[in-house]
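[step 3/7] fold_predict: job queued, chain A
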Amino acid sequence: MTFLENIFDRLKRAGDAPVMAEIRDGQIVNCSGVDLLAQIAQARQFLAALRLKQGDRCALLAPNSVRWAALDLALMAEGIVVIPLYARQAPHELAGMLKDSSPAHIFYSDATLASEVRKHLPSGPDVTLLESVFGGSNADADRAPYRHADADPLTIIYTSGTSGEPKGVILNSGNVNHMIPCTNGRLDQLMGARASSGALPERIFHYGPFCFAASWILLLTALSRNSVLMLSTDLTKLSDELKVAEPHYFINVPIFLERVRRKIQETIQQRGGIAAAVFPRAERAFLAKRNGTPRSIVDAPALALAKRTMFPAIRKSVVGPNLKALICGSAPLSADTQLFFVMLGIPVLQVYGLTETTAICTLDDPFRFEPGRVGPAVPGIEMKTAESGEIIVRGPNIFSGYWQRPAETAKALEGGWFHTGDLGDADAKGNWRITGRVKDLIILSSGHNVAPEALETELAKHLPEAQQVVVVGNQRSSLAVLITTAPSNGLKPEHVQGVIDAFNGNLPHYKQIRAFRILPAPFTVEDGLLTTMGKLKRDAIAARCSAEIDAMYQKKPS
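[step 4/7] structure written:
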């Protein structure tokens, strides 16, 4: 069976049992296997009426919903190539991707978004609102999906464009046929006997857009196993929705876990009393025990007390009673944050991959993970470092090419290996660590090479008021840093200088920060300085903030 045939079969077997849900106004709105198959059939009937044919491309521009999933599956079931796009992206950027991919049809979530994109794409293809797709009746829900050959393209997913224009990554059926058993295998490990016992379905919470490769692979994985995928419908209410969902696991990005950690710490400090006194001592004792260093006679009892009282209460209040693990991807998570959750009794499993690797290269083993590393390579693929330190990968998960970019495809796949652009290394057990990006390396005029990510992560830990910390200095004599903050945070220059002075004390001269500039507003997706996944667009930041950067390197009058 192909992954798509397996999903259709699983939906039939699910019958009236829920397989997906949307959380709306604090309530779970379920969709059963029968219901989802009916929606897929209605969408396929609509597509047939449009006279779309196998191999055509169609864009899907809408936020997550059960209908998004139904249309995505319907398009693939008809042999149509799906181009999923991010509904919150700037209209001119969406128009650029649509011009590049030239779809035969575009499906939108709302008329306002369609109108905004049309301003930048006046001669584009016909469009349909998502709600119009599902009005049909008496559709054949038992009709088998198109059987793709491994080389048949399924989707064109656009990269986030951290170092240039987004590129369309073509993923084929063979890529996904290989990946879904890998993800299911790891989840079976996590869930243990429950995965094969016929127990109640796993509860999965999800808030990441399906137009991103990792989210899409989770969708397909969830629909192929005994689970209910519960979708967030309001990102401002994630903590409330989590309490309603009570998931066994869910995918996160590092910034979300860092915010949760900060919120827990702030809440404890604000509460004061015994909790505020016990928690930091418990944390010191936990880290000392893990690092094999002597523990304070005062801190050890605090850890024992926190394990019995505070940690279970925090765990239940944040993630509910069912959680087996948090899963984190899109960027490396700091070891400190990962250990913080481990201390609370919440395992955090890391995933590493790119869109070009069908979202995944490595997956943490649920019972043998190493904080600060992202796990071993998934079965069937090879990973190694080139002489430059760049991670290169080959295997059935590697994309077939960039849409209409043969030269860039050839460069990315030079020598038969995919060149990830990431720097890293593996330990003796095969667990990988990601240390930076090749293109993000800062080359000082002294010839020293510096990966900025580790410096930024460490500085940010000591500047919780900062929204973003960006180290700069390419072709300069020394490093400097841009720090963004909200005006209400009141970040004082003298405080920043004190943090940097302490920070520099443990670093070699070429890694020391020699200047800084505080910017009064954070970088955002809307201003073009962050990708849709919240990553820094370093080239855009350097261009936009060139005056501020130049000012940091001007010699002060003597």
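[step 5/7] annotate
The chain has a mean pLDDT of 91.
DSSP finds 18 helices and 24 strands in the chain.
exit 0
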